[in-house]
Amino acid sequence: MKRVLIHLILLGFCAPLSFGAFDYTISTTYRYTTLTLNSNTLLVTGAGAYSIEAFGSSYIEVQNTAPLQQFVGGIYDLTLHDNSTMNFHAGEMGNFLIKDNASTVFRGGLINSIASYQYVYWLNGQPVDQHIEMIVKNYSYNTSTKKLTGTWADDTTFNIQLYNQTGYDTVINNIKFTVIPEPATFTLLSLGGLVLRRKK
User: Fold this and answer.
1) For residues 189 and 129, what is the distance between their CA atoms, to the nearest angstrom?
2) What is the Cα gyration radius of the chain?
């Protein structure tokens, strides 16, 4: 019961961002100039933009875009500065840059490249408190080509070029992967849990 109440409270906090009024929206018309956010909110549900720069405590939610093509569709360049945050559900983006104390969650979509100008906290030789989270079913990283490939939770695939920046932690160390088990694996884990409970 406690967990249900906590989830309901958290959903209450998230509702204004998900369903409330946003300062800016991009839905049917492509934005040819740079959109600069200064602690503003932006909802993207279609079309796209040439460039988006987010400063302060801006919040961006990308639910979808048109296919990526400069000056036609998708988001060609997007940069998060300061304490900005983003939820990227689907859509297509060319270049993503993240700086300062900004953070993002990727749940799907096409992202051509990621560059990270951030430091990661290390504990016992492992990176923790990363600024980028990816919700995936699986992933693989090629240390030679700096290519990150895998499958999103919605079964679409990704192929992202990572660009490390001198003086900062590598992009791969700045990514926290949340792996969603396949339905068959989840069923087996659930059955295993039931068997263990019966034995107790």
Assistant:
1) 27
2) 19
Neighbours of 135 (CB within 10 A): 17
**Residue pointed to by tokens 């018309």:** 29
Q: How, if at all, do strands 121-123 and 126-128 pair?
A: antiparallel
Sign of the Cα pseudo-torsion (122, 123, 125, 128, in order): negative
Q: What is the 3-state secondary structure (H, E, C) of 20-43?
A: CCCCEEECCCCEEEEEEEECCEEE
pTM: 0.82
Q: What is the pLDDT of residue 99?
A: 98
Q: What is the pLDDT of residue 182?
A: 73
Show the tokens assigned to 22: 């946003």
Provide the pairing of β-strand 147-152 with 121-123. unpaired
Our measurement of the distance from residue 106's CA atom to the centroid of its chain's CA atoms, rounded to an integer in Å, reads 2
Q: How far apart are CA 25 and CA 45, in angstroms?
A: 8
Separation CA 95–CA 29 (nearest Å): 20
Average pLDDT by stretches of 10, the chain with 200 residues = 42 46 97 98 98 98 97 97 98 98 98 98 92 98 98 97 98 98 56 55
